[in-house]
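haha ok so turns out i had the wrong file open the whole time. this is the CORRECT one, sorry everyone. sequence first:
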Amino acid sequence: MDQVNVLIIGGGVIGCAIAEALSRRWQDIFLVEQNPKFGMATSSRNSGVIHSGIYYPKNSLKARHCVTGNVLTKEFCAKHNVPHRTTGKLVVAKSKEEESDLLALLKRGQDNGVQGLRLMDTGQIRDREPHVHGYLAIDVPSTGICSSEELVHAFARLAEQNGANLVTYAKVTALEPNENTVRVVLRTGDQEQSESESVAARCVVNAAGLYADAVARLLGPRPWTIYPVRGEYCEIRGPRAALVQNLVYPLPHKDGLSLGLHFTKTLWSTLLLGPTATYVDGKENYERDRLAIQEFTADAKSLVPEIVESDLQLAYSGLRPKLVPPSSRGIADFVIEPDREFPRVLQLIGIESPGLTSAPAIAQHVTQLVSAILD
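then structure:
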């Protein structure tokens, strides 16, 4: 049985960013991913937004890692030729009745240390986005977009260049802690030609995304359950994509479920509308009972009245790993901590938005935790 320093479970943007960071400091870093490619799930099925950090409670991991990650992600993209653009965005109050909620959001962003926030009145909104209807808006200049898929691949490529071993078609089936290591049992290969093997790791990082709760429970009962929430998108192509120039958001849902159905001008000059937010009954349920285009139109027209149903075409969908059940409200923070019973296992649970933005900051956090184990 081989022994390694760190074995990372999950090859999304978080796992690959961690692999890249750890491989700069230690040898024998392994990452295993059950899918045939890295970043196939949540990491590449999103808006690709580099968030600023305005939405999350002060001093939460989400707020801290997002604000830091905004800077780090843009620096990483620039250094490693990942397509990206700092666009800024508007968060729009559609009427006087929404003003108090917008002002509360502005204060939250300021409390979190987000720079450059300012209010814009109706005329200033029109100057920035001539087709957007709004009463008042927050200008968020630090927001940007990137190619999420290429970001994942860049982290993975650099990790491998540093000597890390990244393996696909490798599903973890058991975790067996010993005194100084954790035995990780894997099923490798595709379904037709799979075989079992095991690796002893001095430290295990559970970054399994949608399946992080199931991986955690390989150690026994654990307090976390992930509730998959599907986000669906429509796309506008051609001349009508010019109705919005950059990013335009409504106020977030008061229940904390979503940031709201928003417009994202993509790097390839189409216009995304979404995501919606619906709890679904399975972690593979990307397409069953998709929303009809008509159900996007009313929300779209409330921000951009010129939108008509024929402008929209259904696009992709994604799943986010929510820790808040359907019966509850609010924003659950990231879980990033050593397992309380087996501290050689680091648990990363509920890493949803702003996980893409936060990835390099989370990788720094995990590096500190791994250092306490290995050094």
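The chain has two domains: 2-44+149-225+331-374, 89-141+227-322.
again sry for the mixup
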